[in-house]
Structures are given as structure tokens and as C-alpha cells.
Specification:
heterodimer; A: about 290 residues; alpha+beta; Uridine Diphospho-n-acetylenolpyruvylglucosamine Reductase, domain 2; Uridine Diphospho-n-acetylenolpyruvylglucosamine Reductase, domain 3; Enolase-like, domain 1; 12 helices; B: about 160 residues; Ubiquitin-like (UB roll); DNA polymerase, domain 1; 2 domains; 5-stranded mixed β-sheet; 5 strands; binds FE2/S2 (inorganic) cluster
């Protein structure tokens, strides 16, 4: 393994100037649960690893009074799922934070790292998409924002320019009668990579019987996590019934562009998208009804 | 004269609290905490199974949280409080978990055992009433190729009951 320096940055300006100086020879480390494995596996060489865990903005986790959630890019998963107020208000995010790896991995792994690592199978990205998450990226030249679904651009690729880092992910206050859920299919019960995963979010009308709007996102069935626009659009105005969920599953399945690999076949993945869309919609609706 | 990469990366000096003792070490910045523990500090109780975060044999406790020491740099230990398997037993005795693992024959080759003990200790300290499903879920990041897990779970339950 190529030897590299370890540089704990204490503020964003320091971190992005290091990234600008080293270019592709440096990367940010949050929990390191992807980065250190990749370095050891010689996927790439670095001269410097810039530790982000001493940068206050990247470690900030705040549920604002108005109900919006801001997740610093390096906040470890356990901090998210051990916060009772966040568990109550954002169960769809908790679904993902509590199933990334085991307890040891969750002590370090961050949703920001999951997003930047940008594998199609990442469990954390789809729930952020259906919550209409917005990322804040800062570089030496300034700061910009974009939707989470615009951030991942290919397997392992993201929208970060040279010298830029992810600072935080902002989720707007969930509307009244909003609910979200994420489920994945893996061959084991714990600690595995998703064959397919689906996140669903719904906003119901006041009666709790009609879907006003919905967002569906698909994991591990394309080169990036996929925002399933057709299925999402289809759901607007539909009754919140099993029949609707099944139809949405069929539509979502047409938006998946899976490959066959050691984990699953194209046919199995299309099928799983249908099943998981149905199940996560039912769960999201249940949560929305409890969330008046 | 061209430098080799090894020469251009300087060792870092790290101060931490290790098993209750103030500890200082000098290590190359790219070494994992696991490598530092075993090779720099000679604490070989922590085991390497997979070296990629899957098996939990290298589990140590850092500031009250269990982590895979193969997925953390030694340099990150600066200022941290770390407990390894060497810090689990009280002076002159065994921890109730260690005693229960012996009585329940919860180990065969023993490679996984230090990791299971460090993980289970952290669970029982946080959740003294952890039930079987909770224990199984908590230990999902620790793999054992020998015992089939049931004996490990029984040993943790026994220690839990004895620690009350
Ligand atoms: C045993 C094990 C089990 C796992 N299980 C799962 C699982 O079930 N589901 C799943 O989705 N993943 C899983 N993973 C993968 C990994 O744990 C997750 O992707 C995790 O969320 C990565 O977060 P991190 O903080 O450790 O990222 P890091 O490893 O620190 O970083 C990942 C990548 O993102 C970049 N990066 C990180 N932060 C920033 C930033 N702020 N700005 C710019 N770039 C940044 C890094 O340079 C690196 O390229 C598992 C890993 C292991 C070892
Ligand atoms: S050696 Fe660290 S998890 Fe296997
Ligand atoms: S006793 Fe051999 S791996 Fe667990």
C-alpha cells in the first residue's frame, strides 16, 4: 500500500485548501469504513487522508425547531439513530442508518460517506432522496447546493469538483401526514449488500385515505440510486390501497435498469423492486397515518 | 536524490489512554489501530480476521463505542480512551463474560473470542437487560466459524444474569 499522511482538519477552509493542493492525491475521511478498505485494496493511491471528524459543521446534527433536519457529512450513523427526536420524526432515515453494517461499523460510518462513496447499492442514499434532501458542497471557490438525486453521477462517482467537499445534507420539515420507509433485500439477516432496495415517501390528505404526493427511489438496480419519477408521479391523487401500491411497484420496476451479477439477476431485481415498492409504500402510509 | 514514499511520510506521535494507562506511541500515519496495537505496542490479544471490517475479531472500545480497529487509523487514537481485550479482566481475576465463555464452552479456536468479549461487554454496560434477540443483533458484526453462535449467546446471557 502506498504510504499516505493523515491530516486532521479543524475547519472547512483548511480541508478544502488541502483538497485543492493535493488534487486527486487526497481524499476526505469521515468514518473510513469505505475509504480505508479501498486504500488497503489498492483501488487508488493517496498521498494524504484528510480527516473531517474535527470539523464542527461536518459533525453537527440538528433537528431545528421548525422540524427540518440537518445532518453533518461526517456524523456517524449511531448518533442519528440514538437521537429519540430524530427517530420519531425521520423513521425512513433511521431504517437506513441502523442497517449499514453492524454496530462496529455504525460507530464510524456516516450517511455523508455513504453518499460520497456513491455505490448504487448504498442504503443511505434512497431515503435521503425521498425526503427531498439537499446537499451543501463547499470548495475553495465557494458553496453550492443540489438535490441528493443529482449528486450521484455513476458507480462510485459524484458531483464533487476538485477541491470540493460535502458539508451537510439538509432534509426539509416533513409535511403533515408524511411518512417514509426504506427496505432492502439481502440473502442474510444482517451485514450484507443490497440485491435491491426501495425507499418510499408519501404525503396523505387529511383523511389519510388519499396519496397527495409521493417519492420513490431505487437502490442497487442501476448505475446510481434512481429517483423513480414515473412511479412517484403515478401515485399523486391515488387512493392509499394495496392495489395502488402494487401498480406503483409495476411502474417502478420499469424504471429500474439492473444488471445481473453474483448477487442477483436482472429478472430477480425487477421483481424485487415491485415487491419492495409495495411493502415500503404500505409502511410509509402507516407511518404517515400516525403522523398527523 | 529521489525519496522513497516511506521516507516522505513522517511518523506521528499519538497520546491516548489505553486500558486505563496514559500511553504514547510513534507510528506511521497509514497504519491501522489494529497494526499499532499488535505490532507497535505488542498487544496481540486483539485479532486480525478479515482486515476489512466484516469479522469483528479486531473489535476494541473507543470512547465507549465499539469499533473495528482494522477500520481506524492508529493516528486517530489521539486523545481517545481505548480498551482492548487486555483491559477486560479485573486484576487477578476474570470478567464475568470471560468466566461464562469458559463455562459454556463458547470458544473453540478462539480467534473470534477477544472481539466477542469486547463487543458483549459494551452491550451489557449499556443495556444490562439485553434479551437474546438484542444480543444476537448487537453481535452481528462479530463472526465465528467454529461455535455456531448458540454457545456464545448462552454465555452472554449467563454473564448478564450474573452481573445483575
Ligand atoms: C463490514 C461493512 C459493512 C457495510 N455494510 C453496509 C451496508 O449495509 N449498507 C451500505 O450502504 N454500506 C455498507 N458499508 C459501506 C460503508 O460502511 C458505508 O458506505 C458508509 O456509510 C461509509 O461512510 P464513512 O463515513 O465510513 O465513509 P468514508 O469511508 O470515510 O468515505 C467514503 C468515501 O466518501 C468520501 N467522503 C467521505 N466524506 C466526504 C466528504 N464530507 N466530502 C467529500 N468526500 C467525502 C471519501 O473520500 C471516500 O471516497 C459497509 C462497510 C463495511 C466495512
Ligand atoms: S479484522 Fe477487523 S473486522 Fe475483521
Ligand atoms: S471459536 Fe473459532 S472462530 Fe469463533
Amino acid at each position: 500500500m502506498h504510504p499516505y499522511q493523515y491530516i486532521p482538519a479543524t475547519n472547512i477552509t483548511e480541508a478544502v485548501s488541502l483538497l485543492a493542493r493535493y488534487g486527486p492525491r487526497a481524499r476526505v475521511m469521515a468514518g473510513g469504513t469505505d475509504l480505508l478498505v479501498q486504500l488497503r485494496g489498492e483501488r487508488y493511491e493517496l498521498d494524504a487522508v484528510v480527516d473531517a471528524k474535527a470539523i464542527p459543521e461536518l459533525m453537527a446534527l440538528t433537528l431545528a425547531k421548525d422540524g427540518a433536519l440537518s445532518i453533518g457529512a461526517a456524523v456517524p450513523c449511531y448518533q442519528v439513530y440514538e437521537d429519540e427526536a430524530i427517530v420519531a420524526a425521520f423513521p425512513g432515515i433511521i431504517d437506513a442508518a441502523s442497517l449499514i453494517g453492524g454496530i462496529q461499523v455504525q460507530s464510524r460510518a456516516s450517511l455523508g460517506g455513504n453518499l460520497c462513496n456513491a455505490t448504487p447499492s448504498a442504503d443511505g442514499i434512497c431515503p435521503l432522496i425521498v425526503h427531498s434532501g439537499v446537499v451543501t458542497l463547499t470548495g475553495v471557490g465557494g458553496t453550492r447546493t443540489m438535490l441528493v438525486e443529482e449528486f450521484t453521477t455513476g458507480p462510485g462517482r459524484n458531483a464533487l469538483a476538485h477541491g470540493e467537499m460535502l458539508v451537510k445534507i439538509d432534509l426539509p420539515k416533513p409535511a403533515a401526514h408524511f411518512g417514509a420507509a426504506y427496505q432492502r433485500f439481502i440473502p442474510r439477516n444482517e451485514m450484507d449488500i443490497a440485491v435491491a432496495g426501495v425507499a418510499s415517501a408519501v404525503t396523505l390528505d387529511a383523511s389519510g385515505q388519499k396519496i397527495e404526493s409521493a417519492r420513490i427511489a431505487l437502490a442497487s438496480v442501476g448505475p446510481t440510486p434512481i429517483f423513480a419519477k414515473k412511479a412517484s408521479d403515478f401515485l399523486a391523487g391515488q387512493p392509499a390501497t394495496e392495489e395502488t401500491y402494487a401498480k406503483a411497484g409495476e411502474v417502478a420496476s420499469t424504471e429500474a435498469t439492473p444488471i445481473s451479477d453474483m448477487r442477483g439477476t436482472i429478472e430477480q431485481r425487477h421483481h424485487l423492486v415491485g415487491v419492495l415498492t409495495r411493502r415500503t409504500l404500505a409502511q410509509a402510509v402507516q407511518r404517515a397515518r400516525g403522523n398527523s | 536524490m529521489t525519496q522513497t514514499p516511506e521516507q516522505s511520510v513522517r511518523k506521528v506521535s499519538v497520546q491516548c489512554t489505553l486500558n486505563g494507562q496514559p500511553t504514547e506511541f510513534l507510528a506511521a500515519p497509514y497504519l491501522s489501530l489494529l497494526e499499532v496495537l499488535r505490532e507497535t505496542l505488542g498487544l496481540t490479544g486483539t485479532k486480525e480476521g478479515c482486515n476489512d471490517g466484516n469479522c469483528g475479531a479486531c473489535t476494541v472500545n473507543v470512547d465507549g463505542r465499539i469499533v473495528d480497529s482494522c477500520l481506524m487509523l492508529g493516528a486517530e487514537a489521539e486523545g481517545k480512551t481505548i480498551e482492548t481485550i487486555e483491559g477486560v479482566a479485573p486484576a487477578g481475576g476474570l470478567h464475568p463474560l470471560q468466566q461464562a465463555f469458559l463455562e459454556e464452552a463458547a470458544l473453540q479456536c478462539g480467534i473470534c473470542t477477544p472481539g466477542f468479549l469486547v463487543s458483549a461487554k459494551a452491550l451489557l454496560e449499556r443495556e444490562p437487560d439485553a434479551d437474546e434477540p438484542r444480543i444476537r443483533l448487537w453481535l452481528a458484526g462479530n463472526l465465528c466459524r467454529c461455535t455456531g453462535y448458540d454457545k456464545i449467546i448462552r454465555a452472554v446471557e449467563k454473564a448478564r444474569d450474573e452481573m445483575k
